[in-house]
Amino acid sequence: MDSRELLVETMSDLLWERGYADTSPRDIRERSGVGQGSMYHHFPSKRDLALAALERNVAALLPAVSDLDGRGDPLARIEAYLTRPRDALKGCKVGRMTQDPQVREDPVLLAPVARAFAQAHVSWVRVLREAIAAGKLRDDLAPERLAHTLMAVLQGGYVLAIAQQDSAPFEDACAGAVDLLRAAATSTSNLKNDRRK
C-alpha cells in the first residue's frame, strides 16, 4: 500500500473512532507511519485528507446498501439487510460524521455524507415499492416515509448501542423493525384471504 492510500485508510479509521474534530495531523502521521512531508505532498490540509477518507467511507457503505437492490423476495432482502451482522458499538462510518460539529458546519465535508444517505434512501424506497407491488407489504404504506423510518432505526440503534456500550439495543431495534414489517406483511395476507371469502 502506498503512502497516499495508507493516509486515507488511517484517516478513515480515525474519523470512525474519534471524528474529524478530535483527529489531529499528528495522530494521522503517528498511526500511519507516514512522515509530515509525504502527508502534505499528498494532501495540502487535514480537510483534504478528511474529504478523501469520507469518500472512502461512503464507498464502503454503498455496496452493503446495494444488497437491497438484489434479486428474489424483496421482503427477505430487507430482513437480511436489517439483521446482517454489524459492529454496533463502532456505529456507522458515515452516520457518525453527522455528530461531528466541524463536519456538519462544512458543506464540502458534509456533501459525501448527505449523498450517501440520499443514495441509501433511493435503494430503500426501491425495495419497499417492489415489496408493495409484489403484495408482500400493504399498499397503503408510503415507501418514502417507511424508508426514512428504517434508516432512522439503524442510525438510532447505533446511538443507543454506543450510549449503553451494549449491542443489544441495536439488535433489538433492527429485530423490532423486522417484526413491524412482518406484521404489515401478515395484514396483506389476511386482507387477500378476507377478499376471497
Describe this structure in words.
The model is unreliable at 188-197 (pLDDT under 50). This protein has 197 residues and is mostly helical. It has nine helices and no strands. It has one domain: Tetracycline Repressor, domain 2, CATH 1.10.357. Residues 1-61 form the HTH tetR-type domain. Keywords: DNA-binding, Transcription, Transcription regulation. Residues 24-43 bind DNA.
Descriptive tags:
mainly alpha, transcription, 197 residues, DNA-binding, Tetracycline Repressor, domain 2, 9 helices
List the helices and strands and how they pair.
Layout: H1 3-17, H2 25-32, H3 36-42, H4 46-65, H5 74-83, H6 101-104, H7 107-133, H8 143-164, H9 168-196
Give a quick precis of the structure.
It comes from Phytoactinopolyspora alkaliphila. By secondary structure, the protein is mainly alpha-helical. The chain is 72% helix and 0% strand.
CATH class: Mainly Alpha
What is the percentage of strand-forming residues? under 5%
Structural class: mainly alpha
Task: Give the overall form.
Answer: elongated
Distance between the termini: 66 Å
- Summarize the biggest pleated sheet: none
Keywords: DNA-binding, Transcription, Transcription regulation
GO molecular function, one term: DNA binding
Protein name: TetR/AcrR family transcriptional regulator
Pfam families: TetR_C_13, TetR_N
